[in-house]
């Protein structure tokens, strides 16, 4: 059940200082490899009927703890994000459902490597409050799971004793503090 009055009336932009977006994928079958996007922009726009989401992140803003050469050659290279040909990841949703219990659901159009797939997203939201600067701030905690192969991220290597070097299931997590635009 969605809320009868939208708690996010107007337009809210992501506060980049108090927000983060990360992805995690199984590495060598044992641990989760995690990385974040350092440069993320997103807006939640609502009118009387619906809340919409628009967001993007430059691929080259991926931050990982590894030598720069690995990141630039492998992660940004043709086997993975192919940043030279597909520099931006985007997400949009026309109907962000805010439920009375503080949960949120949406069906997002996620575009990676110029491939767009519909992705179910779940999470929670915090109703906006008036902050110290006088503007209203709220928050969204969103999660989704995608198969990286659906976006053309097909690289794989077999492990010597069986199994694969990189998992196909990728967990996406967004912690978004949003501030009302004037």
Overview of this protein structure:
It is a single chain. With 182 residues, this protein is mostly beta strands. It has one domain: Lipid/polyisoprenoid-binding, YceI-like (Lipocalin). It has 1 helix and 12 strands. Strand 4 and strand 5 form a beta hairpin.
Set out the fold topology.
Blueprint: E1 10-14, E2 20-27, E3 31-37, E4 41-46, E5 51-58, E6 62-63, H1 68-75, E7 88-93, E8 97-98, E9 103-112, E10 115-130, E11 136-147, E12 166-180
Antiparallel strand pairs: 1-4, 1-12, 2-3, 2-12, 3-6, 4-5, 5-7, 7-9, 8-9, 9-10, 10-11, 11-12
InterPro entries: Lipid/polyisoprenoid-bd_YceI, TTHA0802/YceI-like_sf
Domain Lipid/polyisoprenoid-binding YceI-like: 11-179
Pfam families: YceI (PF04264)
């Amino acid at each position: 059940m969605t809320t009868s009055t939208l708690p996010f009336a107007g337009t809210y932009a992501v506060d980049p200082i108090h927000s983060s977006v990360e992805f995690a994928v199984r590495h060598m079958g044992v641990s989760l490899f995690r990385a974040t996007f350092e440069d993320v922009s997103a807006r939640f726009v609502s009118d009387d009927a619906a809340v919409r989401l628009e967001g993007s992140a430059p691929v080259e803003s991926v931050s990982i703890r590894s030598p720069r050469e690995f990141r630039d050659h492998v992660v940004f290279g043709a086997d993975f994000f192919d940043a030279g040909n597909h520099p931006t990841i985007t997400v949009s949703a026309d109907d962000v459902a805010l439920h009375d219990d503080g949960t949120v659901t949406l069906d997002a159009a996620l575009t990676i490597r110029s491939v767009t797939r519909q992705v179910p997203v779940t999470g929670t939201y915090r109703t906006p409050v008036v902050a110290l600067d006088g503007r209203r701030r709220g928050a969204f905690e969103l999660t989704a799971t995608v198969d990286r192969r659906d976006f053309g991220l097909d690289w794989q290597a077999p492990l010597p004793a069986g199994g694969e070097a990189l998992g196909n299931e990728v967990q996406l997590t967004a912690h978004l503090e949003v501030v009302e635009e004037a």
